[in-house]
Amino acid sequence: MITIDKVTKKFRKTTVLDSLSLELGKGDRVALIGSNGAGKTTLIRCILGQYVHSGTVSVNGLQSRGNREKILGEIGFVPQIAPPLKMPVVELLHFCAGTARIDVDSIIDICQRLEVEYDVLKKRPFSKLSGGQKQKILIAIAMARKPELIILDEPTANLDPHARQILFEMLAERGDLPVLISSHRLEEVAGLVNRIIELDRGRVVLDDAVEDGGDMSVRIDCRITLARTDDAFANTISGWKFSTDENRTTWKGQVAGADRLRFFGVLARYSGLVDALEMGSKQENQGDGK
Amino acid sequence: MDTRILTRMIMKMRPVKTKVEPMRGFWLATRLDISESLRARWFVLYSLVFGGIIVILFMFGLTESRVMGFTGLTRLLVTYIQISMAVLPIFILITTVRSLAGDREAGVYEYMLSQPISLSAWYWGRFAGRLVAVFVPVFLAMAIAVFWGVIRGAETPVYHFLWYSVLLLSLSFCFLGIGFLISSLTRSSDVAQSAAFFVWLILLLFLDLILLGLIIRAQSPPGLVISLALANPLQVFRTATMMLFDPQLIMLGPSAWLILDNFGHFGYLAWALIYPFVLGLMFGGLGYLVFRRGDLP
Asked: What is the pLDDT of residues A8-54, one digit of tens each?
């Protein structure tokens, strides 16, 4: 699918990618991890044909820079930082639908599935939306194109747990869709991937397969019992769409299988408060996002 | 016209489904740039400046005509054109490089150019959109002035109006080309703005009033002086608009003979129309080559 052969990218005297070679095949769901400046975003931009570099990057046998338009037609991309576009949401959607030759309604459908209030937001300048709303719209644009490859640069940074769950379900629905996810932290994306590539100063320092977490659409029943009530915990867990009893000491909800490490990370902050944690049987999602 | 109404009109325009698919990206980029310009503060200011110039000229024109009555529009148009020559290029240069280099800095290019749109469609589409955005307010201000004058019973200077319009279009095209080249060459909006200002200043210095005067005093060969005048798009525009008002170029002095002997009246007007256009196309094309061969974001 993607062949990266001895790619070197320099900015003035700084080498950001250093003779990097990689092969990403169909069915690969890759976590691209590494610290700031490791070269993750630069590598993504090389794949998208946005940087000139030495070495070759080809997607399905086509050189990425020379065949930009054709290759980008098969790639869905969500950037790390949403562009500060002043245009209204509706106009952005029309532009992207126009370039990808798809119906704008297919983007709107995904927006609504991600619980974006499209009718409310459509006339607002894109730059005035919240971080989460922008991210959801960009995800909708990327997914609506039914891409052959999806590249997500820090995809879950601004998404609430519920939206992440829906994103995981959408990825699961696409079956063997190759995914390249860049992230600072492995636990953010660990449940989503079957391969990890770590970059450091423009070189691959780790390329390892991980145990496939199985179906990304899986949800796990979860019950948390607290030693006492706590407003901060209530606030946090409400973001995961958990509900509670009258005493506010028992919370129930569902966690996306791919998100469980992240969920444990959240609970770790309240470890002194949690009396019991039960994680029950896995449930297959019906695909309606509810 | 209210920019919001214009924006809505642009929004209602859907990309035309034609059999020529490569044009689709071009029209999308053109539409995008026009609607972005209509929303931008620079456009409001730009329209107000040119609308304001016309209003002010009318006010002063009416004051002058108390003695003789309303005497016509030719003088008003000449003054408008002379002011436009000073204001239009710097406005085009600064707003173009600011928005293009600013977009690149802010990460707009990273996202928009991750869409399946060809680089030529993106670049030339934005060029066309920007040309519409910078030319229409200047043209409309002039057209409204002519319309208003006609209503007031003045003679319609159709010939002057048409020539001024095409000369302004050519000048806009030229400076847009320079602006796009500067945007392609520079990586930050600060550097781009400084470069744009510098270019404008150089061309301004080469107007006959300043540098050419010095060259003449230093007894440089007349051929060099005339060549510099013919190479400077601002001077070419200025001379051509003067020629429309003063066909013998009496105001220009002895150099008028050389121009009229070598070019003739229509020959020079044709030069003034074609040369800035070709220059703009050349600079714009060079900018495209730089843009296509370099890093996009």
From this structure: 999 988 999 999 999 998 888 899 998 888 899 999 999 999 999 99
All residues of chain A having their beta carbon less than 8 Å from the beta carbon of residue B106 are 83-84
> What's the Rg (C-alpha) of chain B?
21
Per the CB < 8 Å rule, is A83 touching B32?
no
B2–chain A Cβ distance below 8 A for any pair: no
C-alpha dihedral sign at B211, B212, B216, B219: positive
| Tokens found for residue A232 | 């901060």
Decide if A46 contacts A30 (C-beta within 8 A).
Answer: no
Residues making up chain A, counted from first to last:
290
State the smallest CA–CA distance between residue B291 and chain A in angstroms: 11
> Taking CB atoms and an 8 Å cutoff, what residues of chain B touch A90?
11
Chain B residues within 8 A of A73 when measuring between CB atoms: 116
Among A48, A68, A83, whose Cβ lies nearest the Cβ of B106? A83
Tell me whether residues B114 and A79 touch, CB distance under 8 A.
yes
Nearest CB to A86: which of B39, B117, B297?
B39
Kindly report the nearest CA distance between residue A173 and chain B, in angstroms: 23
* Helices and strands in chain B: count of H runs, count of E runs: 13, 0
pTM value surpassing 0.90: no
Say which amino acid occupies A48. L
pLDDT in tens, chain B (297 residues): 455 555 555 555 544 443 446 688 999 999 999 999 998 888 899 889 888 888 887 777 654 455 555 556 777 788 888 888 888 999 999 999 988 888 888 889 999 999 999 999 999 999 999 999 999 999 998 888 888 878 877 777 788 889 999 999 999 999 999 999 999 999 888 999 999 999 998 888 877 666 666 666 777 777 777 787 788 899 889 888 888 877 777 766 666 667 777 788 888 899 999 999 999 999 999 999 999 999 998
State how far residue A273 is from chain B, nearest Cα, in angstroms.
42
Whether B22 contacts chain A with CB within 8 A = no
Query: Starting at the edge strand that comes first in sequence, how are the strands of the sheet with A54-59 ordered?
Result: A14-24, A2-11, A54-59, A62-63
In angstroms, rounded to a whole number, what is the distance separating the alpha carbons of residues A128 and A88?
A: 9
**Residue A258 burial (10 A CB sphere; 0-12, 13-18, 19+):** buried
B82 touches chain A (CB under 8 A): no
- Residue A164: closest CA among A211, A132, A142, A195: A132
Complex ipTM = 0.80
Residues of B in contact with A44 (CB under 8 A): none
